[in-house]
Structures are given as C-alpha cells and as structure tokens.
Specification:
CATH superfamily of the largest domain: Alkaline Phosphatase, subunit A
Order of helices and strands: HEHEHHHEEEEEHEHHEHEEEHHEEEEHH
CATH class of the largest domain: Alpha Beta
Oligomer: single chain
CATH topology of the largest domain: Alkaline Phosphatase, subunit A
Largest sheet: 9 strands, mixed
Number of helices: 13
Distance between the termini: 106 Å
Length: about 500
C-alpha cells in the first residue's frame, strides 16, 4: 500500500530533485547548445569552425595593371572593391614564369626542388630544358592537407603542372593532387574547356588547343576565349554550393588563363585593336567575370563571415602588354617587374576589424609562404615530415600584425629558356633580404645590388660600394642553389 506523502518525504523529494537538477542541468544545457549549433551549421550548409578559402590566380597580370594598383587607363572595380574591403600588399613576390609559380603556390616549396623551373610544354622541350613533365604527385599540396582535414577541394582553371599539351597524355590527373573535382583548360588533363579565338568579324574562329582534344583523359568543350573565365567561375560556384549543402568547408582554386596572350576580349572591348588595348580589354573582362564569385560570397552572411579570398598573379606581364611600372623588367626576368605580384586578401569576418582598405607596403613575403599561412588559418597541423620553404605569415595576412620580417632571404632562379642576349644576359640568380636585392650569374659574375627602399626601379647598381654584401650574398645564393638539381640554364 502506497504511503501518503509527509512533510519530511516532500522535503527529501525536493532535495533529491534539486541535486539531480544541479548535476544534470549543465549537461542538458550543453546538449541544447550543441544541437542548436548543429542545426545552425546544417541550415547554413557549412561548418563555422573552419574558414573557407578561395585562391584566384591571374595569368601574366602586371604589378600595376589593376586600377587599385595604379592603372589609370582602365578600371577594375570588382577587384578594387575587394581591396577596399580587405588588405592589399605592395611587396609580395612570385616566380618570374607560370608553371614554377603554380608549383610554389601549391606546394609551399621552391620549384627547382621539383625540377619545374619554366613553363611546362611538350616532352622534347621539357627534356631540352632539364625539366620534369609534371609535378610529382608525392609533393606536398595545400589541397591534400585540407582534404584530409575535411575540406571539399576543387580546382577550376589553368593547371600547367603537367599534361594536356601536345604529347603529354600520361600526366597525373589534377584530382591526384588532393582535389575532389577539377575543370581546366589545355594546360591540364581531366574535364576541360578549349578556347576558340574569335575576331568577331564574321570569320571562322580558330582553335587554340595545343593538341589537347587528341589526348583523351577527360571530356572537353569548345568556347570563345573571352568567356572562359566566367566558365571557371560558374564551375567553382556550383562546387561551392554543393559543399554548402554537404555541410563542408571548402578550398577552391579559380585560375583564369587571363590576361595571358593571345588577347581576344569581347567585341566592345577591342578598341583600336592594338596589343595594349586588347590586353586592357582582357583585364576588364576578367574583372567582370570574377564578380559573380565575389558577390555570391558577399551576399551570404554565413559565407561572408567565414570565407577568405586571395587574389594574385603568377608572374609579371608580357612585354608590350601589361605593366609593372615603376618596377624594372617583365615576365621571365628576376627583376621586380617579373617577380612582384599584386596580392589582395579579403575576409569580411576573418580579417582584423581595423584593416579595411589597408595597403601593406612593408611586409616582404612570397608565394611559398602562403601554404603554411593558410594551413595555420585553417587550424590544420603540418606533419612533422613535411618541411616547407615558406614561412607562416598568417598574422599579417589576417591583419593582426602590421608587418613581419622574413627570417630567410627570398630566392629565385631564372627560367632556363630566358637567358637574355649575349651582350645583355639576364641575371641567373637573385635574392632579397630586407631592402637589399642582389642578382648575379651562376658563376658569380655581373653582380648587381640595389637598395629597394630608395631605388624601387633597380636602376643604381651599388655592388661596387658594398663589396662585403656582394661577398655575403654570393655565398648565400650559391648555397641555396646547390641544394637543387641543375637545369639546362645552369648547364649551358
């Protein structure tokens, strides 16, 4: 028979209830918060714990070709807005030519380490220059690190790290380097788009495929060259939306083949048909076609607060087309006009609050620094066995530090097919340490020393005035170079 409740039993009951609540209420509240966050993540379509990363790499864009970097002949409003809402850098460096720059950006290591010291082409030319036919798939890649950390990874655009050109049909697919999906042009294998060169004068467009359509290894489509950047953007947006639906953070490359020659902008941007005008038309076209990517991120509060966008170029401009003024040199050269690149970093919810529109001229860093920096930003640990040539500049990239010194000098080796002329040979090796820029030939001859803080155009050679620096830098640069395999440039 059930006993009636007494005052004492009620008191004991209340005490037990209070004890239970005190014990389990924190766990209950934690469970509620966890479920709430889970539902929020599901609705947003991505994890709020890992930042999304988008890298946009232009091709042959000069240091001063964007209007936010000083171009007064044209306007690039969409990239300008990216800079106005983020940080732009004035002393960021790449290599002087395309394939090595992509290698440095993707591996975080100097390209000579992988025998990629100029643009990859057909087998005969690669072998003549002492180069590989493709990047070793065992090389460390940003995509593979992020893929292993749960990211959706996609590459959309020019690859140029092996395959797709003439007779190189057995290179690894882009997806073998850590990308879930890829879509490229004739500089890679897998699904791709091949350009048609349209003069818009009623004549039949000519193809520019470099034999890619004969190689197989992926379906391909033909498209007017002036629309291809937009095609890469469309593919990237479809991939991003798929990653959102799957609730995964994403890392996406968008690598246009613009503004690389040949220059075939839309008919309204052809102007007088001169090389410079056509080039400017392609730059304007690229800016317009990148805009939907930037707008999609901006218009989504979730993506806007948790996405980092980086825009840069792979090397200096083609002579007679783009400009790196007031820097000396152009594509293929180790002077700053060939190796200094615009870099814009945008991240509405990730950058420090007081850096909007900042121009960072003081920080000197380079493409191999981006992988360790981005991995730190993503919270991904670097395996002990992997050693990058780059350094972590994440604090500067996010605007949490005004500047940072590079611990080691920045080094370059010229492409083996860019020797210059007999009477005016191009420098073979270069380094930058602080404000000093040093260049010389492989045998130590023709030393050049410039103080970039006073001579950004590298016009006043100070090597005779500072023999101690010449001796120091010659030793440093030779020690750096001897750790890598030689190519045809050094063996000539």
């Amino acid at each position: 028979m059930q006993q009636p409740l007494t005052c004492y039993s009620i008191t004991v009951y209340q005490a037990n209830l209070f004890h239970a609540m005190r014990t389990f209420l924190p766990l209950f509240l934690l469970l509620c918060v966890t479920l709430l966050l889970h539902n929020t993540v599901g609705a947003a379509g991505k994890s709020s714990l890992k930042p999304n990363i988008i890298v946009v790499l232009a091709d042959d864009l000069g240091w001063s070709d964007l209007s936010c970097y000083g171009n007064t002949a044209i306007q690039t409003p969409h990239l300008d807005r990216l800079a106005a809402e983020g940080i732009s850098f004035g002393s960021f460096y790449v290599t002087p030519i395309c394939s090595p720059s992509r290698c440095a950006l993707i591996t975080g290591q100097y390209p000579p380490r992988w025998r990629i010291t100029s643009f990859l082409y057909d087998r005969q030319m690669n072998e003549q220059r002492g180069m590989e036919h493709w990047l070793d798939p065992e090389a460390p890649t940003l995509a593979r690190f992020l893929q292993n950390a749960g990211y959706a990874t996609g590459h959309f655009g020019k690859w140029h790290l092996g395959g797709g050109l003439h007779d190189v049909d057995d290179a690894p697919l882009i997806t073998e380097y850590g990308f879930d999906e890829s879509f490229t042009n004739f500089c890679g294998l897998g699904p791709r788009v091949l350009p048609l060169l349209n003069l818009f004068d009623g004549s039949e467009p000519k193809s520019e495929s470099h034999g890619s359509e004969k190689l197989g290894r992926g379906e391909f489509i033909w498209m007017d060259r002036n629309k291809i950047t937009g095609c890469f953007v469309d593919k990237a947006l479809a991939f991003i939306k798929k990653a959102e639906t799957a609730g995964k953070p994403f890392y996406v490359n968008v690598f246009p083949d613009d503004p690389h020659s040949p220059f075939f902008p839309s008919v309204e941007l052809r102007g007088d048909g001169s090389k410079k005008t056509l080039y400017h038309g392609v730059v304007v076209e690229m800016d317009r076609q990148l805009a939907p990517l930037f707008e999609y991120i901006r218009e989504s509060k979730t993506l806007r607060d948790n996405t980092l966008i980086l825009f840069l170029s792979d090397n200096g401009p083609e002579p007679g087309a783009g400009s790196s003024a007031p820097l000396r040199g152009s594509k293929g050269m180790l002077y700053d006009g060939g190796t200094r690149s615009p870099l814009i970093v945008w991240g509405e919810g990730l950058l420090a609050k007081n850096v909007r529109g900042r121009r960072n001229e003081a920080t000197v860093f380079q493409a191999v620094d981006l992988i360790p920096s981005l991995l730190n930003i993503a919270g991904v640990e670097i395996p002990e066995e992997v050693v990058f040539d780059g350094e972590d500049f994440s604090a500067v990239i996010l605007g949490n530090a005004a500047t940072q010194e590079h611990k080691a000098p920045l080094f370059w080796r010229r492409p083996p097919d860019r020797p210059g002329t007999e009477d005016k040979p191009w420098p073979d090796l270069a380094l930058r340490e602080g404000n000093w820029k040093f260049l010389m030939q492989f045998d130590g001859s023709l030393p050049q020393l410039y103080d970039l803080s006073r001579d950004v155009s590298e016009s006043k050679n100070l090597s005779a005035q500072h023999p101690e620096l010449v001796e120091k830098y010659e030793t440093m640069i030779l020690d750096w170079n001897k750790q890598f395999p030689k190519d045809a440039g050094e063996l000539r």
